[in-house]
Design brief:
There is one protein chain. By secondary structure, the chain is α/β, with parallel strands linked by helices. Helix 1 crosses helix 9, helix 10 crosses helix 15 and helix 11 runs antiparallel to helix 13. The chain is elongated, with a radius of gyration of 30 Å. Among the domains are: 116 residues, ATPase, nucleotide binding domain (Nucleotidyltransferase, domain 5, 2-Layer Sandwich); 116 residues, Ribosomal Protein L22, Chain A (Alpha-Beta Complex), CATH 3.90.470; 151 residues, Glucose Oxidase, domain 1 (3-Layer(bba) Sandwich). It contains 15 helices and 31 strands. A 7-stranded mixed β-sheet has the order 7-13-12-8-9-10-11. It starts with a strand and ends with a strand. The chain binds adenosine-5'-diphosphate and magnesium ion. The site of magnesium ion (MG) has 4 residues, from loops.
């Protein structure tokens, strides 16, 4: 009887499978564990994580580590990935033509048009005209209200107001005639005077309707079709805000400007093509398909993507002691996204969504010092350590312990940095592929699209469903179900969208609705994993035809996701493929595939024989 451990070192997670193998080669699994990988996979820093994982697996059995007969490590294909985002459009106000934002408490509501005028000038204003009055920070709200009331009494038609401070409600409450008031306009001095303007304030819980529609703006200002085309970016930037002002200035202009984002050079076996990043994800991925298989990808220096490429090359070069110039980037995935950006030349801190392209790149090299790692581990634990088995082959061997599976079978290993696929045919031959882009990219997309700038929170939003705290004693889950509490929740949670993590509800510091946050989360998962699942499977499928694959088992950390497996299964159903989450050894779910495969293919084990 020999006790052996299979150890899978991933970039995110190190997993152990423990088993006893008897003299006949029958395998009996008796434990497992999972810890966070320390350092990049295949490096010396992994050792402490591996020891920790071995200890955790052995602890319940009360067996000392020195009783292990052997430790088997995966021959990890050194793959590292990284992600970056390139913004390709931005909104610029070249002359003050627009204000649109979400002040917490605007005054009044409704739509009004008039000529912009300073509060001081109201006393001499013409009574035949409609006005939108401007109130700066130097004016007390009481005084402002009195002056507006006085003008109204003289027959001057004040239709709306733009206010610098947060005084909208205070002024509104003191007016003889209610008008819509947009407040918290920081740069009120930039608003041009004596220009036609339209102002709109939506009721609580709603967003503006007219000023976000180009034809309504055209109606209000009598615009020509040409002018209407030009205000489309304004209407777009004003979509979803609670209050807005549009001013028609002579050259007043807001533009959607394209930002040069450089280009990628895709070097394939037969052809080399260039593609500008600002043409978007579809154009990039078309070209990637066109030149596949890729040998190398270059990105323009001085761009975000160029910087990311340099980082992955550098990290891999340091790891393998090779010159940076020898490290080739072998795959990229691009996805289109929208990221919130501050409007340039803004008057009230306005944000607009800019188009961006998210990219993940991956480098792969032949030799990482796995043997050195094995020797170091052996020294530390005084147990025989061997490097055995290619990761993709081990993963499929492990996956085949899922009840109800047999070869031919394909697996998708949905990890953190890469999405891998392998296929085993009836003859036992295995083909595999590693592609850039997986869980880490989803986390980045969620972070950027929501403008969180907090990867930990983005990761939690990826992991857990959302809920809305409706009172301090109950919350409504994303699926509509209601949960009640005996004790009141933290008052800071009141009215907030929360993520339901293990530690209870955690507030998300955003104004966005639960619906939008969930939408961003789902889209990010779909963009990365559906696209990559199809890409990966078509590379390993017979004749490149996914329809010729019958069964797919999902393994890896991202297969634990509460939505991703269903998204993939739905998509693959259209190809007639049966897809499910693997259940390694009938008990481990999608985890532990590689570690389990290592044990089963060890020299001591009789092939594929094990009891659960
Ligand atoms: P690796 O093999 O590269 O170490 P893993 O197979 O451990 O990677 O997968 C890591 C990825 O899985 C990370 O992106 C992580 O966010 C994701 N992940 C792990 N657990 C879950 C979960 N419960 N729900 C969603 N994603 C998860
Ligand atoms: Mg893995």
């Amino acid at each position: 009887m020999a006790l052996i451990a299979g150890v899978d070192i991933g970039n995110n997670t190190t997993e152990v499978a423990l088993a006893e193998i008897d003299g006949q080669g029958a395998v009996r699994f008796c434990g497992q564990s999972l810890v966070r990988t320390i350092g990049i996979k295949g490096t010396m820093r992994n050792v402490s994580g591996i020891i920790d994982a071995l200890n955790q697996a052995l602890a319940p059995l009360k067996i000392p580590r020195r009783d292990l007969a052997m430790v088997l490590l995966n021959e990890a294909t050194p793959v590292i990935g990284d992600v970056a985002m390139e913004t390709i459009t931005e909104t610029v106000i070249t002359e003050s033509a627009m204000i649109g934002h979400n002040p917490t408490t605007p005054g009044g509501m409704g739509l009004a048009t008039g000529t912009t005028i300073n509060l001081d000038a109201l006393s001499e204003a013409d009574s035949a005209q409609d006005f939108i009055v401007l109130v700066d920070a130097a004016t007390d709200f009481q005084v402002a209200a009195e002056m507006i009331n006085a003008a109204t009494a003289r027959g001057v038609r004040v239709r709306g107001a733009i206010v610098q401070l947060d005084d909208g409600v205070l002024i509104h409450n003191r007016l003889s005639q209610p008008i819509p008031i947009v407040d918290e306009v920081r740069h009120i001095e930039r608003v041009p005077m004596r220009m036609p303007a339209a102002i709109e304030v939506a009721p609580v819980g709603k967003t503006i309707e007219k000023l976000s529609n180009p034809y309504d703006i055209a109606t209000l200002f009598g615009l020509s079709p040409e002018e209407t085309r030009n205000i489309v970016p304004i209407a777009r930037a004003l979509t979803g805000v609670r209050s807005a002002v549009v001013i028609k200035t002579p050259q007043g202009d807001i533009q959607e400007r394209r930002i040069p984002a450089g280009h990628l050079t895709l070097i394939g076996a037969e052809a080399t093509v260039e593609v500008p990043v600002d043409q978007g994800a579809a154009a990039i991925m078309d070209k990637v398909d066109q030149v596949a298989p890729l040998r190398e990808i270059k990105a323009e220096a001085g761009t975000n993507v160029g910087g990311m490429f340099e980082t992955v090359r550098q990290v891999m070069a340091d790891l393998t002691n090779q010159p940076v110039s020898d490290i080739l980037v072998q795959d990229i995935i691009a996805v289109d996204t929208l990221v919130p950006q501050q409007v340039l030349g803004n008057l009230a801190g306005e944000f607009a969504l800019g188009n961006a392209v998210g990219l993940a790149a991956m480098v792969q090299t032949q030799k990482l010092p796995m043997q050195m790692l094995a020797r170091k581990l052996e020294e530390e634990i005084q147990v025989k350590v061997a490097v055995s088995g290619v990761e993709a082959e081990m993963a499929i061997n492990g996956a085949l312990t899922t009840p109800g599976t047999k070869a031919p079978l394909a697996i998708l290993d949905l990890g953190g940095g890469s999405t891998d696929a392998s296929l085993i045919n009836e003859a036992g031959q295995i083909r595999s592929i590693h592609l850039a882009g997986a869980g880490d990219m989803v986390t980045m997309l969620i972070d950027k699209e929501l403008g969180l700038d907090d990867l930990d929170l983005a990761e939690r939003i990826k992991f857990y469903p959302l809920a809305k705290v409706e009172t301090l004693f109950h919350l409504r889950h994303e699926d509509g179900s209601v949960q009640f509490f005996d004790a009141p929740m933290d008052p800071r949670l009141f009215g907030r969208v929360v993520v339901m993590g293990e530690g209870g509800p955690q507030p998300i510091p955003l104004e966005d609705t639960l619906g939008r946050i969930a939408e961003v989360r789902r889209k990010a998962k779909e963009k990365v994993f559906v696209q990559n699942g199809l890409r990966a499977l078509s590379r390993v499928a017979p004749a490149g035809n996914i329809r010729l694959i019958e069964f797919v088992a999902l393994v890896g950390g991202s297969s634990l996701d509460f939505e991703i497996p269903t998204m993939l299964a739905d998509e693959l159903m259209e190809y007639g493929v049966v897809t499910g989450r693997a259940n390694i050894r009938g008990s481990q779910g999608p985890r532990n595939a590689v570690a389990t495969g290592l044990v089963l293919t060890s020299p001591l084990a009789r092939e594929q024989s094990y009891g659960r």
